[in-house]
């Protein structure tokens, strides 16, 4: 197999860099959607634990020890969980593509500022 011309290498590198930038932008967008969804889930969980009074009355403790479940909130919670699972899978694919592009370009992978979140930054071993 013949070695590609230097012009081809530069073109391929430009294409990969553009794709990498696009993936980073999409990853940031998904991270912000994920952050918003997590905030909504937390609000739903707080509301489920301590339901707000409907007509200005003080919140009453449950009569039989178990709180009444609101089906609308449960449906919303399930939908949010499904969306989060889909976004997590998509983010994982994007991260894999970004790392692959970085390897091809010979650069360290950049997962954006969101990669330094709760799990801590993952350092790649030196080659």
Task: Give a brief outline of the structure.
This protein is mostly helical and 127 residues long. It has helices spanning 6-49, 71-105.
- Overall 3D geometry? rod-shaped
Q: Sketch the major β-sheet.
A: none
What is the CA-CA span between the terminal residues? 27 Å
Number of helices: 2
Helix amount: 55-70%
Order of helices and strands: HH
Strand content: under 5%
- Total strands: the figure is 0
Oligomer: single chain
Low-confidence stretches: 113-121
Question: Gyration radius, to the nearest Å?
Answer: 23 Å
Q: Structural class from helices and strands?
A: mainly alpha
Report the average pLDDT across residues: 74
Structure in words:
This protein has a domain at 16-50 and 71-105. The longest helix is centred in the first third of the chain and has 44 residues, at 6-49. The chain has 2 helices and no strands. It is mainly alpha-helical and 127 residues long. α1 (6-49) runs antiparallel to α2. It has helices spanning 6-49, 71-105.
Search tags:
about 130 residues, mainly alpha, about 0% strand
Q: Topology, please?
A:
Elements (H helix, E strand, L loop, with lengths): L5 H44 L21 H35 L22
């Amino acid at each position: 197999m013949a070695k590609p011309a230097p012009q081809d290498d530069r073109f391929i590198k430009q294409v990969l860099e553009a794709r990498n930038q696009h993936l980073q932008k999409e990853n940031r967008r998904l991270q912000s959607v994920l952050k918003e969804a997590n905030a909504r889930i937390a609000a739903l969980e707080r509301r489920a634990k301590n339901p707000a009074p409907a007509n200005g009355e003080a919140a009453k403790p449950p009569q039989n020890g178990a709180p009444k479940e609101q089906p609308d909130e449960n449906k919303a919670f399930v939908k949010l969980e499904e969306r989060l699972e889909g976004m997590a899978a998509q983010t994982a694919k994007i991260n894999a593509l970004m790392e692959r592009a970085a390897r091809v370009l010979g650069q360290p992978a950049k997962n954006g500022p969101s990669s330094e979140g709760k799990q801590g930054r993952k350092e790649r071993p030196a080659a």
